Amino acid sequence: MGNCLDSSARVDTTQISHITSASGVSKFASKTTNSSAVSSLTVPSYSGKSNPESLPTPRSEGEILSSSNVKAFSLNELKNATRNFRPDSLLGEGGFGYVFKGWIDEHTLTAIKPGYGMVIAVKKLKPEGFQGHKEWLTEVNYLGQLHHPNLVKLIGYCSDGDNRLLVYEFMPKGSLENHLWRKGPQPLSWATRIKVAIGAARGLSFLHDAEAPVIYRDFKASNILLDADFNAKLSDFGLAKAGPTGDRTHVSTQVMGTHGYAAPEYVATGRLTEKSDVYSFGVVLLELLSGRRAVDKTKVGIEQTLVDWARPYLGDKRKLFRIMDTKLQGQYPQKGACTAATLALQCLSAEPKLRPRMSGVLATLEQLQTPKNGVQELTNRSSDSS
Ligand SMILES: Nc1ncnc2c1ncn2[C@@H]1O[C@H](COP(=O)(O)OP(=O)(O)OP(=O)(O)O)[C@@H](O)[C@H]1O
Ligand SMILES: [Mg+2]
């Protein structure tokens, strides 16, 4: 339908700001030419399910905070819940804030003695001005309305002076990033990697297939959180965006995301579709297969960018072993690895239309869990080699 670039969200690619998270992954945000003021901030609503063709109704900050199904905490309550944000309660740090462990009573949701009641994760945003506030509100808007086993549960929020906080269910195994690259935890087995990919694919499929589709926009290993059984849940909806509706093919937006994960056509044009998420999913699938980061500045040349380095090996089953994670110690089914690599290659197609939909990605991954394609073959290989 031609060039529908929305002039109100024109991308000025000469002004790209970078934020580097604790993991060294850099986020970027192109500055739009006309940012609006905090007081007029509105984000789409997903409650109007009766007419999926209509544009989501923008809601004001007051409407979002009053209608969301989550608790408004005071700063004091969250100080009590986290032992005053004590450093030893720190779970992690991202580009936009610090995450602390805390405890609340599961019925009254009031702060409680550490070790009792329900464990929570409290994200305290760094004072980032307008962008930080906008992402905070977008997160409350989406996670206050969208509920699914593969999306992290938002319990509440806090807005107190310049302080913006978010309260989530605690995810005992932290992020996928911790397991792939931090020293300490046992390397993830093949079966667990596939389980995590399936959980994350279910979360994205749910968003894309909702009556009012949502584009997640920041799919990456650090935003995939894991429960005690390695069930994956997506977190961080600060960049999420309403998908195109009616006969629109894309939404035009300020380019934001994380280097190495964002789809090339989106970075180049600001045109966002569900297929941008599919590309990012391909990058994470590649991280799961290779055990390498999307971008690794410690490497040289082409090896710095995982997609560029791995692409030539993905479609060749005789060469695939060269990019597989050595921490798997060969303990993976060759056929299953080949299927996953082919799937990653499809997700990473330069042409968005050639990328599969997330529902198709999910179906392919689920087949890898059947004994025929996974566990059985792995058992045979293990006994072959012993
Ligand atoms: N609900 C949670 N339960 C347990 N740990 C969490 C939870 N949320 C976040 N964390 C931990 O805190 C870390 C920081 O999360 P955060 O979302 O702030 O940053 P990030 O995802 O690493 O980077 P970015 O700023 O780009 O989102 C995560 O990697 C994870 O280890
Ligand atoms: Mg995050």
From TrEMBL:
Residue intervals of the Protein kinase domain? 85-368
Which family does the similarity line name? Answer: Belongs to the protein kinase superfamily.
Q: Specify whether Kinase is a keyword of the entry.
A: yes
Localization, per the record, is: Cell membrane
Q: What is this protein called?
A: non-specific serine/threonine protein kinase
For this UniProt record, the keywords arranged alphabetically read as follows: ATP-binding, Cell membrane, Kinase, Membrane, Nucleotide-binding, Plant defense, Serine/threonine-protein kinase, Transferase
Q: Give GO terms: molecular function aspect only.
A: ATP binding; protein serine/threonine kinase activity
Q: Would the keyword Thylakoid turn up in this protein's UniProt record?
A: no
Q: Where is the composition biased (Polar residues)?
A: 39-54
GO term, biological process aspect, one = defense response
Annotated ATP binding sites: 124
EC id: 2.7.11.1
* InterPro entries membership: Kinase-like_dom_sf (IPR011009), Plant_Ser_Thr_Prot_Kinase (IPR050823), Prot_kinase_dom (IPR000719), Protein_kinase_ATP_BS (IPR017441), Ser-Thr/Tyr_kinase_cat_dom (IPR001245), Ser/Thr_kinase_AS (IPR008271)
**What's its top-level EC category?**
transferase
User: Which residues lie within the region annotated Disordered?
Assistant: 39-63
Identify the PANTHER family for this entry.
Answer: OS01G0588500 PROTEIN-RELATED
Gene Ontology cellular component annotations, sorted alphabetically = plasma membrane
Look up the signal peptide feature and give its range: none
